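Retro notes - structure team

What went well: the batch runner handled both jobs without manual restarts.
What didn't: labels got mixed up in the shared folder, which is why I'm recording both outputs here explicitly, each with its sequence directly above its tokens.

Job 1
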Amino acid sequence: SLSTGLDLPGRFLFAILTLMTLIAILVFIEEAVYIYRKIPSSKRSIIIWINAAAPVISTTSCIGMWVPRSTMFTDFTAGIFFAIVIHKFLMMMIKECGGQKMLLRRFENGRFTISTGPCCCCCLCLPRVPITRQTLFWLKLGTFQFAVFRPVLIFLSIVLWTNGNYVLYNLSPKGPALWISCFIGALTLFALWAVGIMFRKVRILLKCKNIIPKFALYQFIVILNQLQTTIINIFATQKIIPCAPPLSSTARGSYIAQQLLIMEMFLITVVSRVVYRRKYHDLEPLECAAPEEPGDKKQPP
């Protein structure tokens, strides 16, 4: 068992990481109570969802660390929750602008810059798209599709895994793991692209709401939960991370990823409490709204 296979430093490390997870959960609960009491109901649930991302990932990583056989389910649970949080972050930016109608009024003659990361950061020749109900619909659809299709693909992966057809580290073209991973990766890029387009437009207007630190925390969760874990798993698959009996290379890579995530998500939970707990001023009225970005030209009525 796990407890008998750990030496004294290992048990101490596991105890410290478990304590950090419990503290992160308590910090989030206290923050959720504060948000429920102080934040208007229109934004309450969205902000609670976004703040829950780090403690949920920390909790699933802690469970996977203690119960190695549950790693498949804990990773998939964190993945589903993270897909929903990406959509919630886009909706939060719209809500902070006063809602969709107010956003359209504030940027009545503005345009979205779609040459942004992670999909089109090098395509500077792409045209700038007018801000209309239709373009807002496509941006919301870009994140909503990820929140819908990723849980479906994860459920399909679990079904194939229980039947023995899905092997996480088998990236052979004949296996389903490669194709499902590529499809999820494409959906992730489109969702992050939609959030990046919206952030690039509202970052000046929402500067008084500290949207830049909030976006930075969101980006850290994306990089650490997705990119960092993927890189460690690739290193483990290629035996770059050596085995340490009784742990194989893949098992050790999974342990390293989970332990890093627990520490990182603990720090993000604490910082998120500071950033989201501040009292922000309301946006200026439309007559005194923030100026448009360079290149947004007023159109004649």
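Job 2
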Amino acid sequence: QMADPFRYDAGERSRYECLGHEVQIEHIKAYVCAPSFFTDKAVIVIHDIFGWLFPDIRYIVDLIAGHGYVTICPDFFKGTDPWKTTDHWADFADWMKDHDPTKVDKEADVVLKYLKEQCGAKKIGIVGFSWGGMAVHHLMLKNPQLTAGVSLYGRIIRDSEERYDLLNPTFFIFGEKDHTISYDQIILLEEKLKQYCKVAYKIKVYPGQVHGFAQLKPEDMKPDDKPYIEEARKDMIDWVNMFI
């Protein structure tokens, strides 16, 4: 039996009134939020296993847009069902086979084209959470159009030298108490990046934090966790601001 990767019950989330709107881009639906002024800077947000409709991820999109970016969260599951809180963890490995975070290139290209042609974006960054963190790590190795990336608690899925040859600056955020990612993996990531990575990178581990910590809405935060959640989000925005 695999441990539930989220320590909070994802079914018991508070309601969230979104600030953005939904669009259809070729074969993909997406949630978009943009600032009230024109900007040629954009950020793609990649959702976790709970998908693009999940309130927490929409809150993050709105938060990033508030810092002056056209921000978009596409449905990387292409209309198929996200993981649901009622699903059984015994089935998770099979579900992951059909939802591979390293098979996101086509969708990323469609969204990049939309941001450039329809939104006038010249610099585009990417931020991803959990499943999305893995997708960000993959895309930062493959897609030079992405100026900077932030991977939040994406499991470190394979160990090969090409996994560390990032194309553009990437920031890796982890929680100290994340039981899906061992500290040894993080140490290895750091050693390998030092060896193979030719661009700016950063790894930071936040004390006492579990998997999924950085995407909580304010009313869902525990007081002890709040400073670390806010710090992680500020660090994420600072990284994006630095390169985009």
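One thing worth noting from job 2: The CA atoms of residues 61 and 168 lie 22 Å apart.
We'll revisit the folder naming next retro.
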